[in-house]
């Protein structure tokens, strides 16, 4: 009989298995970091470890004072109007210009909060004035809405004249101006850079 050359059905090259599962990432990182120390046996030992990690009391006080100073510095820069430290809604030359426009105006809407507080307090003092107070509040709200529309129109027109290429216009910009105008002047942030009646 002629010799029949036997051929293997398995492929010529086969990648052998690793024989073990692939380790999880956290396990591999844990091995690279080294062994973890034993858990504390007593509460006293646990406190000692926490104290060692936190540092001395003087170090903690110094770090806390440094953090407070950094926060105060950031707030002062924000109130001064430095663009880097402002909230995203306040950043940019367009928003700074709008703030100046609002701060240079004498806005009736800025009187709403103080007057509303006075009216509400008077209602508690004299309950019989409830109808009059409610009517006065409605009248104030109507004036606020009218002035809000007027202010939004003025601000948008001035912004388009000063920044013709800006896309920051419309209702969003008008609302930004209205919200700032409704705040008491001393409580506005960033602080006003111009006085009432100043040219902007």
Automatic annotation (TrEMBL):
Listed Polar residues bias regions: 1-16
Keywords, alphabetical: Membrane, Transmembrane, Transmembrane helix
Protein's UniProt name: DUF3043 domain-containing protein
Entry keyword Signal: no
Keyword Transmembrane helix set for record: yes
Biased composition (Basic and acidic residues): 56-69
Membrane spanning residue stretches: 108-126, 132-152
Renumbered residue ranges of the record's region Disordered: 1-69
Pfam entry (one): DUF3043
